[in-house]
Known about the structure:
Largest sheet of chain B: 6 strands, mixed
CATH architecture of chain A: Orthogonal Bundle
Radius of gyration of chain B: 24 Å
Helix content of chain B: 40-55%
CATH topology of chain A: MetI-like fold
Number of helices of chain B: 21
CATH topology of the largest domain in chain B: D-Maltodextrin-Binding Protein, domain 2
Oligomer: heterodimer
Number of domains of chain B: 2
CATH class of chain A: Mainly Alpha
CATH architecture of the largest domain in chain B: 3-Layer(aba) Sandwich
Strand order of the largest sheet of chain B: 2-1-3-14-6-15
Mean pLDDT of chain B: 89
Largest interface: A-B, 31 and 35 residues
Strand content of chain A: under 5%
CATH superfamily of chain A: MetI-like
Largest sheet of chain A: none
Structural class of chain A: mainly alpha
Helix content of chain A: over 70%
Amino acid sequence: MRDFINRNVAFLFLFPAMGAIFLFFFIPVVASLFMSFTDFDIYSLGDISKVRFVGFKNYIELFKHPLFWKALGNTAYFVFIGGPLSIFVSLMAALLINSKMLKFKSFFRLAYFLPVVTTLVAIAIVWRYVYHPEFGLMNYFLRIFGIKPVDWLGDPRFAMPAIILMAVWKNFGYNMIIFTAGLQNIPGELYEASWIDGANKWKQFIHVTLPLLSPTTLFVSITTMIGYFQLFAEPYVMTQGGPLNSTLSIVLLMYNEGFKWWKMGYSASIAFTLFFIVLIITLIQLKLQKGIKID
Amino acid sequence: MKKVLFIFAVFLCLLKFIGCHRESARREIVFWAFGAEGENVKPLIREFSDSTGVKVKLQTIPWTAAHEKLLTAYAAGAMPDICQLGNTWIPEFVALNAVVPLDEFIERSERIDRNFYFPGIWETNILEGKVFGIPWYVDTRVVFYRKDLIRKAGYTNFPKTFDDLLKLSRAIVSGKLAKYAILLPVNEWNIPVLFGLQFGADFLKENNCYGDFSSSEFQEAFDYLLGFYKERLAPVSLTEVSNIYQGFSVGYFAMLITGPWNLGEFRKRLPDSLIKELGVAPIPSICDTSYPGYSLAGGSSLVVFKSASAKAEVFKLIEFLSRPVSQVKFYGLTGDLPARLESWEILLKTEDEALKAFYLQLTKVKPTPKIPEWEQIAMKLQEYLEYAAHEKFTTDETLKRLDSEINMMLEKRRWLLNRCKK
């Protein structure tokens, strides 16, 4: 008996968490995978006999639909421009914050972190004013430099850059904190040694800081990429995907199909497509990072 | 392992217990109303409870969340007894088999009869020959315009035909009376549908199973509408006018197509000097003889859900809210136009010009196709209007693409109808 308890006590403690994860995570995931092979919609909600098993039809239709490719393109634009930009800004901010010459460190840390913890809806309202074509702060600056005002959120060419700018501003503080922690873990002796060897600040950065920061960079780039692929709230509150679908992201498309039109089957197929895209890109990223380490 | 299973079983029982607890006895009517209507119906509900002794539990839900909330409540089996429903949503809830037909109640009732209502509005509540909702308040689209600018353009009265409207618009823009003549937002499906109605377009064909936007009628209407954007009589970009009240008062545009809810807003927000210059006119028509033109039959109806326990009591509440006195009072509280003709007799005595225009328009309204997919089709139409207004595609190409997308959406409907035949 005692033996039994000893062996199973771990299960006992794990059970509440496992149970919750199983009930609220695994079952819904499996159910939605199944759903993505059916045409579950508003009719089926009323009468379950009106649901049909359609095999891969949802996926085929999805890949044939120009709106999906448009949304995928927009999301990729956001991830591959906004992602690196946000990591770069975070790293720069972390270096500045970590600098020995800086006073009021905790004030700046707080100031840069503040947008991360502010609700997006409040931020979006402020940024809508910032981007206002006539009275906005953005165009005010442009005018100072003699550049013609831009209709930030109304012009299909500028809407996505505007969203990226806002997202970078809102999110860089989080990665900055992680980078600061990474920087503080680099032993001071290494800098001293390289200094004795005659390395200047720039060489120290390239040969000491960056290599030792690579585990942090890997972590940051993967979490940022996964997070950015799930772009939703920014376009949802700022533009609703417009103008001309130029800020429609994959998740926003999924939300519209699923919760606006209740095409749950179709929408589940979008979710799984996104899952596979993120999985593949994460694997590629891991592989690349390993390759760098061997060199 | 047994122990683990045992705990799991206990856990499940607990869940079950929590789940059942909700079903505590309720003897009151649960009424869901949305937004401003929900806020303002309270005094009427209190009056009803005081006179009949029936308790009503009112829940107010914001308009933006209403549709999702109703569907999730349906999926969870937690529907109210009675609810306000935008009349374009009724087909969806009929398809869900969530609302009950009210014919037998209407037959027995002395207070509710189809002749008491605008025919176009009553029509929106009928599906498969049965009445599923009682109109509560109505909504339609009319033209708001600046009288002073129109006078300057040489018009004493608002144009009665579309050709005249076009001429007026050109006069306004070429005379630099306003930057744009009319505001026709490219992200509102009402606008292309309104134009389509004038030209006699049906939107869908073959028992609403296929898109019919490439029909010659709709093409003509669509081209007419696009002309306003092409000649720069109407703005294409949406952000150019971030505040319509301000845009209207500074003379950014001289006319706009909008609904009754904006009448109060305009009167509240326009500078005093402009309030008397605010004119309201019905939609123009294609030829003089058919004036006014068709507009949309909008508004909300009251419906009874299948899960309601005391349906007779619930219908009494509907009767109460449908009394002409209640409706006039409700108009005073919200500005929502009453659905009953008798209420209008009282309202029209106030000599309000705008109300007269609304009344005239309401006698000529048409419902949009009554299928659950309509909302989705309308959004697609809006999407393609935006593309066409930005001149990404030609009219012909736009409408062909639109139809083919709509045909894909209606595949399920065709399958269901075929299945019923068999």
